[in-house]
Specification:
single chain, mainly beta, Cathepsin D, subunit A, domain 1, four-stranded mixed beta sheet, 5 helices
Length: 499
C-alpha cells in the first residue's frame, strides 16, 4: 500500500511565504452566559504575521514542539525541566578556524539549538542575531526562536468597557489568564496590559470561592484568592483569581473566573497576552461555560484560510463528513494524576503493509500517572514513546527503500534522501494510528515533508520518553470533536477552510 507524493506534499521551498491560519470574525448562537448554546471563534497561528517561509515555519514549530513536549513530560513525571539558573560545571569547548578567526560551537535556549560563534579576546559582549531582524547578515544556522505554550491564538475582549486581546489556546491546561496591572514581572505583549481598575465588572474572588479550591496552588491574601500556576518548567503565572466579563463574537460572558497575573515568567507566552485553557478541569473555559463539547479544524500549515474553533452546539462533525460515513470515535481516558489532558488509547500503528502491535503497556497510562497518549493542539510534531517510535522508524526504513538523510536542519530525525529525479514517483507508505474503536488514517501531507534545500524527505514524528503526543501537524484538515459529556473524541477528514 502506498500514497504517491504529489504536489500536495508540503514542499519546503525558501521562497514560499506563509499567511495567517485564521483571521476574521466570530459567530455565536446566544448572548447570555446562562443560555449560551454555541460559539464560533477564529484561530490565528502564532507565526501568521512573521512573513516566514514554509521551511522556517516548520523549523520554528519543531523547536516549540520539543520544548512543549519536555514541559508536558515534566508535568506528568513531576521532574522539572533543567532550570536556566543551574550552576554550570567546568567545560572544555572545542574551537575551529573560520575566515581567519576562531569559532566556538555552542547551543542557545531550551530546547538547545546549535550555533557557531566567533570568540574574541578583544571584546566583552556575548551576542547572537535574533528574530525579528531589522538588518541581519546571512548565517549558516537558524536565528533563535522562543519556545511556545501553543500554536494558535484566539481573539477575545476582557472587562467593561471591553478591551481586545489575543490569547494562546491550550488543550493541555485549564486556567484562563492574562497579564494584569500593576505588573511585578510581565513579558512584552503587543496590546496594553489589562488594568482591572479600569473595568466596572472586575471582581477579585474570595478564598471561599469553589474556583479557588480548584486551583492546584492557592494562597489567601487579604481575603483574596491568590494563585500560582506552573507549566512544568520555569514558566508560570502568579496573581489573583478574579471574575470578569469576557466578550467573544460580540457575546458577553459574565463572571468568567480567570487569573489576573501580575508576575508572569517564561519566554513561551510572548505570542499573546495570556492563555485560554481548554483542558478537562473545572477552571477551563469549556467547563466554566457548561459546554459539553468543543471542536476545532486546523487548516494546512501553508493555507491562508482561518481555522475554526467551535464551542457547544456548533461542535459537531460537518454534514459532508457524516454523510460519507467517515466519522471515527474513540473513548477519552481519564488520568487522575493529570486531569487536564485528553488521553486516548493507542492500540497500534500501520505503516504501509506492516501492522505494528506493541505490548499494551507501551502507550498505556502507568500506575504512577506517567505515560499514555494525549491529543494536543499546542504541539506541532507527534511524539511516540521510544518503543513505538523505533518500531515505526524501522517500518518506514524498510518500505521507503531510500538512504537515510540528516534532518537536523528542520529538527526531525526520521529522514530519507529524495531521489535526484524528484519525489513524484516516490511511494510513501500509508500511516494509520489505531485507537480503541477508531482509525486515524493520515494523508501523506500530514506526516511527510520535503526539505527542498537538503533533499531530505522527513516523517514528522519524533521519539519521546514516557508521554506520547498526537500533534497538530497530523491534525491538519481533520475535524476533531471533544465530547467531554460523553467522554469521546470523534474525528473525520474535512476541508477545514470550507467548514
Amino acid at each position: 500500500m502506498g500514497a504517491q507524493v504529489q504536489l500536495r506534499l508540503l514542499l519546503l521551498v525558501a521562497t514560499a511565504v506563509f499567511a495567517s491560519c485564521a483571521t476574521g470574525g466570530l459567530a455565536a448562537t446566544s448572548s447570555q452566559l446562562g443560555r449560551l448554546e454555541g460559539l464560533r471563534v477564529a484561530l490565528t497561528h502564532v507565526d501568521a504575521h512573521g512573513n516566514y517561509t514554509k521551511l522556517q515555519l516548520l523549523r520554528r514549530a519543531a523547536r516549540r514542539s520539543r520544548h512543549r513536549m519536555s514541559r508536558l513530560v515534566a508535568r506528568t513525571t513531576g521532574v522539572p525541566m533543567m532550570s536556566s539558573k543551574a550552576v554550570a560545571p567546568a567545560l572544555q569547548v572545542p574551537v575551529h578556524a573560520g575566515n581567519g578567526e576562531f569559532l566556538m560551537d555552542m547551543s542557545i535556549g531550551t530546547p538547545a539549538v546549535a550555533y557557531a560563534a566567533i570568540i574574541d579576546t578583544g571584546s566583552d559582549l556575548v551576542w547572537t542575531q535574533c528574530k525579528p531582524c531589522v538588518e541581519c547578515f546571512n548565517q549558516s544556522t537558524p536565528v533563535p526562536v522562543h519556545a511556545g505554550n501553543g500554536e494558535f491564538l484566539m481573539d477575545m475582549s476582557i472587562g467593561t468597557p471591553a478591551v481586545a486581546y489575543a490569547a494562546i489556546i491550550d488543550t493541555g491546561s485549564d486556567l484562563v489568564w492574562t497579564q494584569c496591572k500593576p505588573c511585578v514581572e510581565c513579558f512584552n505583549q503587543s496590546t496594553p496590559v489589562f488594568d482591572p481598575s479600569s473595568s466596572s465588572t472586575y471582581a477579585a474572588l474570595p478564598c471561599s470561592s469553589s474556583f479557588c479550591s480548584d486551583l492546584p496552588s492557592s494562597k489567601c491574601t487579604s481575603a483574596k484568592c491568590g494563585y500560582t500556576y506552573t507549566y512544568g518548567d520555569s514558566s508560570s503565572t502568579q496573581g489573583v483569581l478574579a471574575a470578569e466579563t469576557f466578550t467573544l463574537a460580540k457575546t458577553k460572558l459574565p463572571d468568567v473566573a480567570f487569573g489576573c497575573g501580575d508576575t508572569n515568567e517564561g519566554d513561551g507566552f510572548t505570542q499573546g497576552a495570556g492563555l485560554v485553557g481548554l483542558g478537562r478541569g473545572p477552571l477551563s473555559l469549556v467547563s466554566q461555560l457548561g459546554l459539553k463539547k468543543f471542536s476545532y479544524c486546523l487548516t494546512s500549515l501553508d493555507d491562508t484560510s482561518k481555522s475554526p474553533l467551535l464551542l457547544g452546539s456548533l461542535a459537531s462533525i460537518s454534514e459532508s463528513a457524516a454523510a460519507a460515513s467517515s466519522v471515527q470515535t474513540t473513548p477519552l481516558i481519564k488520568n487522575p494524576s493529570q486531569p487536564s489532558f485528553y488521553y486516548v488509547n493507542l492500540k497500534g500503528l500501520t505503516v504501509g503493509s506492516t501492522h505494528i502491535t506493541l505490548p499494551s503497556s507501551a502507550f498505556a497510562v502507568q500506575d504512577d500517572g506517567t505515560g499514555g497518549v494525549i491529543v494536543d493542539s499546542g504541539t506541532s510534531i507527534t511524539y511516540l514513546e521510544l518503543q513505538g517510535y523505533r518500531a515505526l522508524k524501522k517500518a518506514f526504513a524498510a518500505q521507503m527503500k531510500l538512504p537515510a538523510a540528516d534532518g537536523s536542519g528542520i529538527g526531525l530525525d526520521m529522514c530519507f534522501e529524495a531521489p535526484a529525479s524528484g519525489v513524484d514517483q516516490v511511494e510513501v507508505p500509508k500511516l494509520v494510528f489505531h485507537f480503541n474503536g477508531a482509525d486515524l488514517d493520515l494523508p501523506a501531507e500530514n506526516y511527510m515533508v520535503l526539505d527542498s534545500g537538503s533533499g531530505a524527505l522527513c516523517v514528522t514524528v519524533m521519539g519521546s520518553r514516557g508521554l506520547s503526543i498526537i500533534g497538530n501537524f497530523q491534525q491538519q484538515n481533520i475535524q476533531f470533536v471533544y465530547d467531554v459529556g460523553e467522554n469521546t473524541l470523534s474525528f473525520a477528514p474535512v476541508q477545514c477552510a470550507k467548514l
